[in-house]
Specification:
The protein has 164 residues and is α+β, with helices and mostly antiparallel strands. 30% of the residues lie in helices and 18% in strands. The chain has a four-stranded mixed beta sheet, with helices on one face.
């Protein structure tokens, strides 16, 4: 059995298919996968103070649902799926734009992952100007309203695949 949890979301999208094929190859019979479920990787983004690159939250470069997992792990048979947690956290294009414009002052800066662009440590901006405060306040308000209108969804999905 091969167990792969909290890894695939960090793999560069252009390498994800290759990584999944390698997991299938080395698996003798079972492959257990654990990844964030339908994570909105625009919510909680950070802006690197060194290179100004925009980073996804927690270094998560990929988002997963059941269909994507089945496609990534063909030809294995899906034996079980389970879900963990629940959240309503979502964002939208306007809020994402406003947060990026504000420099993403309230992103996931306490993460261990470095900037995906330059590799340097991410630091939360210490000086937030009025314009940034206004943009981010509007974005947070829009996200809060959206959170009341959308259903909750699981945070994690765990799947068991089997070679047949």
């Amino acid at each position: 059995m091969v167990l792969c949890c909290e890894v695939l979301e960090h793999i560069a999208p252009k390498l994800l298919s290759k990584a999944c094929k390698e997991l299938v190859r080395v698996s003798k019979r079972f492959l257990v996968i654990g990844v964030p479920y339908k994570q909105d990787i625009h919510l909680g983004r950070t802006t690197c103070l060194s290179c100004k690159g925009i980073n996804p939250p927690w270094g998560h470069l990929n988002s997963f649902d059941e269909k994507k997992l089945r496609e990534l792990f063909k030809p294995l048979a899906l034996r079980s799926t389970s879900f963990v947690g629940g959240e309503k956290a979502r964002t939208n294009a306007i809020s994402t734009y406003l947060m990026d414009l504000a420099g993403n002052p309230w992103g996931t800066y306490n993460q261990e992952e470095p900037c995906v662009h330059c590799g340097k440590k991410l630091f939360q901006p210490s000086d937030i100007h009025l314009f940034q405060k206004m943009c981010s306040k509007i974005a947070l308000t829009l996200n809060s309203i959206e959170g009341h209108l959308v259903p909750s969804h699981p945070i994690w999905v765990h799947t068991v695949f089997e070679k047949v």
